[in-house]
Amino acid sequence: MDLNALNVFITLYRAGSTQRAAKQLGRSQSFVSKVLAQLREELSDPLFIRTANGLQPTSYADKIAPKIQSSIEQINLALEPEYFDPKNLQYITVHLGEPLMVMMGKDLIDAIRAETSAVIELRQWRKTSNDGLIDGSIDIGIQTLRERPQQLYQKKIASGYGSLVGNKNGEFIKLIIEDLNEYVELYRAIDVKLNPTIIVDNYSVQRQLLADNYSYQFKLESDDSHKAIAVDLAVICSAARRHEAKISWLSELCQKVMLQSIANS
């Protein structure tokens, strides 16, 4: 059986639609549909059933997918060149948490561009970023270290703390960060009576408001740190891809840029 066809199957299994699979593979939707038809004939199973929510794997597809994925990974590792050159990359996708996007987004793009001419897709971290890392449409992300799906690998790269910044005579601002504190009041660890009267979900807006108001800002260890508001940051990627040369290179680059950007903020 054609190895490329099995790779299409795994991509389709993760993506849940021929359109998304085609985008991830860089091929046409008709190509993916043609390969799927061939696999259905060869394996004597429909493999996927079309539903309102996309393609639903059959029980047979669920059974063989992990084995095929493992086999493909082993073959890719065996064939991977000993020397990795980022200049050969074509596409890079990174997701960052809201404050980090502003703090290090430009520096990260500059650092990546200095080593490769690949297309760079830098987006804000969303709850759906976890799924994108698992299905391979996202290479790497930086967000808080917390409980996540077991298909993800997290590497702690920094510990930071909340520091009070701004004009304490003004109103208290809460910055909402998706997939972190939508329903958690971290500042209550310092003052249970503290209530925000301004709530925003944009770091740049929060910064603009600090001239007349105050809030907590993530910093590395400092004299004004409040240890009760601790946040661990991690580089996050698919557990299946953690040893890929591309992921290792990107992880080290992101860590270096992030630490420098936070230190200078």
TrEMBL record:
<dbReference type="InterPro" id="IPR050389">
    <property type="entry name" value="LysR-type_TF"/>
</dbReference>
<comment type="similarity">
    <text>Belongs to the LysR transcriptional regulatory family.</text>
</comment>
<dbReference type="Pfam" id="PF00126">
    <property type="entry name" value="HTH_1"/>
</dbReference>
<dbReference type="InterPro" id="IPR000847">
    <property type="entry name" value="LysR_HTH_N"/>
</dbReference>
<keyword id="KW-0238">DNA-binding</keyword>
<keyword id="KW-0804">Transcription</keyword>
<protein>
    <submittedName>
        <fullName>LysR family transcriptional regulator</fullName>
    </submittedName>
</protein>
<keyword id="KW-0805">Transcription regulation</keyword>
<feature type="domain" description="HTH lysR-type">
    <location>
        <begin position="1"/>
        <end position="58"/>
    </location>
</feature>
<dbReference type="InterPro" id="IPR036390">
    <property type="entry name" value="WH_DNA-bd_sf"/>
</dbReference>
<dbReference type="InterPro" id="IPR036388">
    <property type="entry name" value="WH-like_DNA-bd_sf"/>
</dbReference>
